[in-house]
Write a structure and sequence with these properties.
single chain, 2 domains
Length: 95
């Protein structure tokens, strides 16, 4: 039952299997394209955004998003240290 699968086991051969898979791929992509183009976000533009100043951005970051800002800073520092450790060459022991 779970032995080797050969192409002769497929009743109509490889071209039909390839055609069926191509048909399924095209169908799925068409369905996704239809869903994207008929979504609510595509048809309703939001209100125009007001340009934010640097002062407003800093105030929002330091008032409402202090913890996420600190966490991202620590993660970027850890990534930088990890990149330096990976990039360092080991000293060859010449004995």
């Amino acid at each position: 039952m779970f032995g080797k699968l050969s192409w002769s086991a497929i009743p109509f051969g490889v071209p039909l299997a390839m055609g069926a898979s191509l048909f399924m791929i095209v169908g799925i992509l068409a369905l996704l394209a239809w869903a994207v183009f008929h979504s609510f976000a595509m048809h309703s533009p939001g209100p125009p955004a007001t340009p934010a100043t640097v002062r407003e951005l800093g105030t929002v970051l330091m008032a409402e998003y202090v913890l996420p800002l600190e966490v991202i800073g620590l993660m970027l520092t850890a990534a930088l240290i990890g990149a330096v450790v990976v990039a360092m060459k080991e000293k060859q022991d010449t004995q």
